[in-house]
Amino acid sequence: xxxxxxxxxxxxxVALLSDGTVNSVLxxxxxxxxxxxxxxxxxxxxxxxxxxxxxxxCYANFSKYLVLKTDRIEGKLLVFLKPCDTYSxxxxxTEHRFDREKVYAIGVGCEGMVDVNKLKAxxxxxxxxxxxxxxxxVTTIYDDEPTVVAIENVLLExxxxxxxxxHVAYDExxxxxxxxxxxxxxxxxxxxxxxxxxxxxxxxxxxxxxxxRCNACRDACPACTCExxxxxxxxxxxxTKAPVTSFEEQMFHIIRAYHxxxxxxxxxxxxxxxxxxxxxxxxxxxxxxxxxxxYGDYQAGEEVGMRAPLVDYTLEDLEPGEVLxxxxxxx
Amino acid sequence: MxxxxxxxxxxxxxxxxxxxxxxxxxxxxxxxxxxxxxxxGSVWSxxxxxxxxxxxxxFPQAEDLMEFKVxxxxxxxxxxxxxxxDFVIFGVRACDVKSFEILDRVFLVDPxxxxxxxxxxxxxxxxxxxxxxxxxxxxxxxxxDCTEPAGDVSIWKTETELYWQANTEKGEKLLSYVDSxxxxxxxxAVDEQKEKTSVVMKKLPLANLTTDGFGAGKTMELFNNExxxxxxxxxxxxxxxxxxxxxxxxxxIKDFDTxxxxxxxxxxxxxxxxxxxxxxxGNNRLTQKERFRQRFMHKLVYYPENNDGLYSCVGxxxxxxxxxxxxxxxxxMKKIGGEK
Lengths: 331, 340
Fold this sequence. Notes:
Chain A has 13 helices and nine strands. Chain A is of the alpha/beta class. The radius of gyration of chain A is 21 Å and the shape is globular.
């Protein structure tokens, strides 16, 4: 259950619209059910009062929308950012992908967001959801009595392994500032590293063979902001619309992981949006873990203007040969 | 009507698999279900439906069409299609069975798509009645009765039994292979189940979703509706809705350069993509709003205009469950068609 209430955010958004600080509000719009919240640009106080929501299902990371949306609007856009979203926000600013002057950012404290797939696996035929101190009180079309689902059992993976409750960017903060968390997010990567090369290959082959090349991972990724992706460009020579060969289905995701290496903030949107539940975040986390081990701890988006280790040079940098040595027998 | 005990289900599968290649939904490690080839030890999933629709069986995501080989001044053209053998898709839901009719009206009209036609001819559909629909289901909006699924054979699963009804000659033939494992049955248990499910259907959140306001003759009125801007404003332009959709049928034909020739293949395409139907003059639809509008106009206006009023949505709910931003056809219908 979120500590900040919908009303607190709504009042603030309405006030900023009324006094002319902002012209529009990028927020979450209620859906058909209590869990299918859609990112939406609200233009008026009435529209906000009718459709704005803030609940355990506001998982979408708004930072990427700023790249496209701030070009097209008059005046300032108010955006609500959860702690993890602020890292993407800073990273995009570092890359000069949107105009900071056109954005008014409110940092919102976050208690973790729900993975709808996990919730649906626990309860059939959801008709309404109420957030309570005990957990999510879910009413269904099949049972007379509501089922209470403990929130920690249905959190998104990225929230289970939350890396930071601290906002690294905002104009205004609502709620208490949190801390950077020493999470267990690299445990799964370590488990993959502990496999033999054959086992690891089999693991990824099985996962990546599920890909339907819907490109949702790429299109939701705040680090993927090329105006024309090579995989969409018929003139690039590598355009692909379907995983025609097993080579292609492996290469798309691995190439994408390389393209965002050092820039990926580990926001987890790739895995959240994948309709085939491929744990894509593990590829990116492997890169982050390697960068941390080779160049010292680095968190993309922590500050605006940071030079990423892969595009920087210091005398302390690891020699390439040493990396090979570290790979040991596996090489 | 015939029936068999659920305890015998693996014997039934084994018997069918002797005569046909058999596919059925099985549980995957991420608690989703997928159609997989039956083999000894396969367990039939209890899931309501698969994430990927069974349209793949007739219209696969990618298939090779022909090969060109160049040697000196000669070009050899080879037909590299793989001929189908008879196969059974077991446990297809009523919505998905209906999607085949929608695809047929695209691929089996003149000029007939011989690749699709061959697979349709060889495919035998065993449909399964629903008992526990999800909140995202709205098949009734499109006149589909999930308790009375079409197909070559219809089946109803109760706690202990499986009831079988052959609807076509292909279905009769399939049932003859499992004759010794089934026995004659009356329709009492099935009728009771249908009754019970019908009550649930009326309680679904989208039970009142209507196609009023859509269909043939509505092109200009709906095309110019102002709500498209708002509905499409945060669409990511990914292809999830089109690729999980059982009725989306757009494809691209492309050439793969093998070094000394070309393999021409066909693959799914998505009207949500920026390079969709790109031609020499450029693109037809330059904004995501136009692409987004195209998808819903096609399903709710253009297709029925050309197909005797039949809509090209079956209410399976896959796009409702899978869209990364939770924008979908139900929300579009309510907004554009008016709240009902």
